[in-house]
Every structure is written in C-alpha cells, then in structure tokens.
C-alpha cells in the first residue's frame, strides 16, 4: 500500500526547499507557506528532523521537482550524521543538473563544497539575510517569492534558450519533464537544438545524443518513436509560431576548434495531420532534422523494440492515464570525429585498452551521447569476455566513467541501458567493484534512470539486473536500495510491463531485497504480495519468474502474521500452488521455491491455515508425487520434507495430517529422500524432522519401523556423527518409535550405542543431551533392555549430562526420567547411580529448580525410584539432603497438585529410614502435608497420598500426638466424608488413624469422633479395602 506522501510525490512538485535544519527552519517554513499561498505552485520542505520526512521521500522530492530552492546559510553543505544531510542534498542537486535558485542568507559558506557550487555568478541568487529577522515569524522578501513563481511559470510555456554551445533553440518545457533533461538535450557539440513537441510519456529524448544503428563509417543515425494521437488531436489542429534565428557561434572544444556560421530557418504549418521540416545548415557539419506526426500507432522504423514496448497500447508500460501526443521522428548526422570514434569502437572495442575507452568517455567525447553509448557497449563486451578484463576495466576507472555518462546524458535511454549493462558485467563476481558502484552513488543513479525512462524496457531490464547484483553483495546494499525507493521502482516495473524477461529481472531483484528483514514489511505495504502473485499467474510457464516469486512470497511471509495469512489464503491454495507442485511442473527449482515458501508460511503462523488444503488425499498426493518426480533434486526433497514436518508437527489434533501423509505413501518418500541423498546433510536432517513429526502418531510410528525407518535413522546418525541437527533429530525419532514399542531387542542395542555416542560427541549441547535422555527413557521401559542400556554406560552419561547442564531444566527433566526408568526395578542399577554420584545430582536438580514443576516432579520420581526397596541408596539420599529438598519444593509449588502428590509419595518412601522420618518431622513435614490436603480437599488422590504420608511420619508417641494436635484427625475425617466411594482414600485414612491410635490418648480422641461409623460404612460398602480391621478393633476405634 502506497503512503499518501509517496502518492503526492509520484507526479513531482514544483519547488523543493533544501535547508540546514539548525539555521533556517523557520525561514524555510515561511517561504513554503508563501509559495503554497499562490495556489498554482506546489512546494516540498526537505525537513529531515525525526518524525518528519524520510530520506527516501526527500530524495524522491528533489528528483521529481522542477526547481530546487537552496537556503544558503553558512553551514549549508556540511557533512553531518544525518542520512540525508545538506551535503548529500547539494551533491544530488548538482550531479543531476537540477534547476535551482540560491537564497543567500550569509556572508560566506563554511564548506568549500557549497562555496564552489553556490557562487553568485554561477547560479541565480537572491538575498535574504538571517540578521534581518525581526521576529520569530519571518516573512520572505516579496521579490524572492515572485522570482520563484515566475521561474515555475516559465517552465510551462515555450521560450528561447541557449545551448551550451551558444545555439539558440525553441524548447517546449513540458510539466512532465525536468528542466535538467531539457538542458541535457542541448549539451551536444556541433549540433543544433531541435523543436521538441510536448509529450506526456517519459520515454526516449529525441536529441542528437540518442543515436543508434551505425553500421559503417559516416552512416546516419536515426531515432524514430511513434505513439498514438489522442482522439482530440484527430479533430483539432496544432499551431506553432514560425521562428527564424540567425546565430554566429565560435565554439571552442578541448580537441576541436570550429568556426560555425549557422543560419536556422524554422517553419511550422497548421494542419490536423501535418509534417514539419526544419533545415539547419552549418559550415562544417550538416544536420537534417525531420519531425513528422502520425495518427496511428506503429513500431519504430529503426528497430527500437529494445526501448519501446511494441504492441503496447500504453496500459501496461508507462503512464496509462497520460494523454498521448504526437512524437517526432528525428534524423541526425553526427560529426566526423564522433563517427570515427564510434566506428573504431564497433570494430575494435573488444581489444581497445579499457583506459583508452575511459579517456574517450571522460575527456574527448564526454559531450556526445552516441559515443558514450558505444563506449559503454565496448566496456560491457570486455567485461563479459573474462575476469581479467573486468578487473582491468575497474582499475581504469570504468565505474566513474559509466556513472558520469549516466548523469550527463540522463535524457538518452540508450546510454542509460548500455551503462547499466556495463556496470552489471563489470561487477560480476567482484565485491570490490560493487562497493565502488555503491560508494559513488550508483544505486541512486540507476534508480533515477529507471524512473526517468519508464517506457524504455532495456533500461528497466538492465537496471533491475544491476540492482539485483548490488543487493546480492550484502545486507547494507539491500536496505539502501529499499530506502532510496527501490521497492516501489521494481513493483512499478512488474505492474506496468508485460514482458516476461523484464518482469523476471525485476522479480529477481525484488527477491534479493526481500532477504533483508527490514524490507519485507515494506514490500507487503507497497502491495508487493498482490503484484508478485499477478506476475506469477501471468507467466505460469516461466520457471524463473515462478521461482523468484515464491522466494519473495516466502520471505515476505516471515515479516508479519498478516502477510503470511494473506499468502496462505491466496497463493498457497490457488492455481499457483497447483502449478508449483503438480506433476506437470518440469522445473525442479520452481517446485523447491514453492515448497520453501509454504514452509515459511507455516513457520510464521502455524500449520492451521494449510491443514485444510493438504489434509485431502488429492493435494497430499500431488505434493508427494512432486517430490518423487524431482527426486534427483536435493532442494525439492529438503524443502518438501521440511514442509511435511511442519504440517504434521503438533499434538493429537494433527493426527489426521499424520495419518494422511502415511496413507499416501509419505513414509516411503521420506525414506527415499534419505537413501538417494544420503550425502546431503540438509536433506537427511529435514527427512528426520519429517519422520519425527509422523512418529507422534502410533500408526505412523509403526509404519516407519516396519519400512526400515529405524535402521535408516541409525545409519544417518552413524554417517553424520558430528552433525548436531542430525543427532538431535535422530534421537527424537528413536524415542518416539520406542515409545510405541516398535523397536526389537536387537535393534535396541544398536540404538543405545548410537544415542550414547551422540552424548559423548555433543556433551556440551543441551538439545542433544535432552533428546538422548528421552530416548534412553523410552528404551529402558523393559527391565532386560534397561539392564543392557545401563551396562553400556548409560547411567554415567546421564549423570554427567545433568552435571554439565545443571541450570538447564530442559536437560534436567529428561535426565531424571532416564534415571527413574532405568533404576525403577533394579538394585544393581540403583547402586550404579549412587556410585556415579547420581544421588547428589538429582537432589541438586530439585534444589536448583524448586520452582520448575516438571523438574521437581521428575526428580521426586527419581528419588522415589532410587530409595524404594534399597536401604543403602536411601541412606545416600538422606546424606544428600533429599528430605529438605522435597519439603522445600512442596512449599515453593504449593499450588501444583501433581507436585504435592508426588512429593508425599516420595516422603513415604524416604521415611522408611528413621533418620529421614525424624528429619521430615523436625522440618515441619506434618504442616506441609496437612496444608496440601486442605488446599486440595476435593482431590481424592491427594487425600490418599497425604494420609499415607502422615501415617509414615507417625513413628513414636510424640509424633502421633503432634499429628493429632495439628488437626490430622479432622483432616482425615473430612477426606473420608468427601470421598466416601474412593477406596484409596478410605483405606489410607483408616491406616493413618490406626498408626496414630497406637498412642492411647490419641485413640480415645479418635474413638470419640465419627471415625468408627465412617470406617464401618466404608468396610460394609466398599470392596478391596487395604486396612486391617482387626488392628483397628484392637485399638478400640472400629
């Protein structure tokens, strides 16, 4: 979407006011207001302060305005930190020959740059002294305002001007063309200025410099361009005034002294379809200029198809709303020296030393556009020939010469096109040349050429080519092009031009710009998504356009969810998608780019928008067949597998996608990718990612295992031992396959070896360690396999991983699970854990991450598994401070019912060792448990675990009375009343009551409560209760 400011500048303003921010802000605002008050004058204020205009908008304003007014204060032209300071503005104005007026506001300029270019005898100057200000609201001198307005009005009417060589000429300055271009048209030695008809388009200037088609020495150069007349021109006559000019000129050039006596007779007739002939005769050079009008649209008589879009009715190339006026046909004969130089360059340009060509451009024939064009062509041919000649050209100063030619001959489309072509070939594979082009303002020059010659397709194509090459060099260049308006220029080319080769170059350049994060949103805001998709739809068979287009869409999708959603809703579901992944797509690069873009969309906004598209067997079948058709292309497999992984990634809600992929042969395609491109790490990594996503589903995991997926994963991990992504993804796939019991005992041993090898190689990589521990957990669920895995050194590897990544909860959680899984039912493995220092390590994890629910839960589980049935390990845990760690975690995570339940269970097992029981009691364990039971009174499992923990803590009379005094009896009775049908709660409550009733005083309190009745009710209504009724009866509470 184009901003209002750029819409305002698209047609250019009349006056652009350039000023030094710190000196003339108020005066500039006053002058701006005075000019705008005239009504017919539009003015732009180059305000570069924060929040005002962007650098790009100021550049655009200066470029498109008719007149620049410079507020000449002492600091004007100084170099500051601003990206568009007055030094850069002055350079841009001077280098582009912009008409200007200087408002002298000081005695002398501080910078030599300003003193040189703004001298009073060189440019029109008006006085307005800063010291003459009488208030904070200055008023510009009336004469200054009148002079500026008069200058603007003069540009809209025919007037006599004098060329740089003293020849008088009648020039009609159209409001659509810059005055600088008009003056450039007369800057040709030994030539007469012609009568120029107003034209609304911005194509080729018909001057003596626009010469082409020289076949032999002294041949005539003809420029012909014809456009349609408007409907009005066929009914109304065009009238001009006959003019006769006699001029005696003594013209001295650097190399030629010509005394010229010129008689110019110009006659114009009035007719609805007329021919006007102008004969200009000189003593040394004869120039015949013929201007003819036509009411029909035709191609150029001299093969100008490189510069005009043949067959274009001006709706696709140029300004579609411009009224088309008659354009002239001009025949020009060049001077002998010019023709000799051009003939030599055409015959021997490839072998002429580059330094001589540069000298010809910059000194001998700098004034001749025709010679400049021939020199540019010769430099381009040399640069294309070899790298050595490219280097020689750059060393000879070719870049300077080419940019100077483009600036000096801005009106010649052929010079612009050939110079861009030469720049592109010189910069090929040469970063230093690219830097030189950028450093000398080449980006701005190229963009200006493309804006000025909008209908010259060769200029547009070569310009796009240069921009793409410059942008590919580094990120700074990409951003600079965008800031200077490059995005808008490229999108305009793609909108207006219908030629595939021009659009392809523009799309390639836009793709380079899109690789910069700062440009992606700009492309979207300028309407780039719609433009790119339109071009792609217009040129479906063009594989390059499709490839660049998909690349642009993919990068833009990463800029914002809105952009990604737009692309997902259009390109990713429509004809473009079918074209990209259909089996009739012959270009693998096109297919790969589309798959990459789809993946970027999914990564930005998730896979939900595309699930509906690919959940159908038809579309999934197309995708998988496209991967099969281009099976020899690694990029297609890499991005295809990445897309499959992204589509199938997630939880159970995506099981339909996983099943769809598996049902349509996705497993075979993925495994084929791993086999046929086993030497490509990226393909293998992405294929493992796809298998990992599929194996979340049990059916798909079984399919992967049955088709040899486990063996393929192990082979990949073996081949890429030092590739972190392969090892991480491989461990994850093995873990998910093992979780669904799809790994045989024999394969498990190989899997354990692969996982342990990955842990050894990537000991400092937390992601690999975490996935490896998860895999060991899944493998060790069978006791026999657990013993095998532990026997290979798995325990020591897991403990070491916990110690090396002690602050990483993502490692601590799966590592505790692995120790828990391996040691759960094996005293031998528990001893290995103690020997390896696992007790201290697990307790340290619980203390360090006491606020992390996952770590606390898994570490409590590991402690419980290690101390169950093993007194020696329980003692080791007691020494490690396990009791204090468990109680601290319960307090820290008091709102987590899962942690409270697991911690109570752990306290029960620890309290089997009297030292742990006494420590738990002394550190307030009773209060912690009771608080958890009260907090989660409606959770039956919590009530059962809490009663069990209280019973375990009641080891002596003091402890029993303390539990009763702290409300243990009341809490247990409340649990029994609330959960009457819960066997676990009733059983554990009765056991706990029996434990504390060993104390006679406590027994009496229980007997006096409603417990006997509740116990009897439970006994008579529930089966399978685990308490001993005889023990309760003996204690008098049943």
UniProtKB/TrEMBL annotation:
<dbReference type="InterPro" id="IPR011989">
    <property type="entry name" value="ARM-like"/>
</dbReference>
<feature type="compositionally biased region" description="Polar residues">
    <location>
        <begin position="227"/>
        <end position="238"/>
    </location>
</feature>
<feature type="compositionally biased region" description="Low complexity">
    <location>
        <begin position="239"/>
        <end position="305"/>
    </location>
</feature>
<feature type="repeat" description="ARM">
    <location>
        <begin position="485"/>
        <end position="528"/>
    </location>
</feature>
<feature type="region of interest" description="Disordered">
    <location>
        <begin position="175"/>
        <end position="211"/>
    </location>
</feature>
<feature type="domain" description="LRRK2 ARM repeat">
    <location>
        <begin position="345"/>
        <end position="496"/>
    </location>
</feature>
<feature type="repeat" description="ARM">
    <location>
        <begin position="665"/>
        <end position="709"/>
    </location>
</feature>
<dbReference type="InterPro" id="IPR000225">
    <property type="entry name" value="Armadillo"/>
</dbReference>
<feature type="region of interest" description="Disordered">
    <location>
        <begin position="227"/>
        <end position="323"/>
    </location>
</feature>
<feature type="compositionally biased region" description="Low complexity">
    <location>
        <begin position="175"/>
        <end position="201"/>
    </location>
</feature>
<dbReference type="InterPro" id="IPR056597">
    <property type="entry name" value="ARM_LRRK2"/>
</dbReference>
<dbReference type="Pfam" id="PF23744">
    <property type="entry name" value="ARM_LRRK2"/>
</dbReference>
<keyword id="KW-0677">Repeat</keyword>
<feature type="domain" description="LRRK2 ARM repeat">
    <location>
        <begin position="543"/>
        <end position="910"/>
    </location>
</feature>
<dbReference type="InterPro" id="IPR016024">
    <property type="entry name" value="ARM-type_fold"/>
</dbReference>
<feature type="compositionally biased region" description="Acidic residues">
    <location>
        <begin position="306"/>
        <end position="319"/>
    </location>
</feature>
<protein>
    <recommendedName>
        <fullName>LRRK2 ARM repeat domain-containing protein</fullName>
    </recommendedName>
</protein>
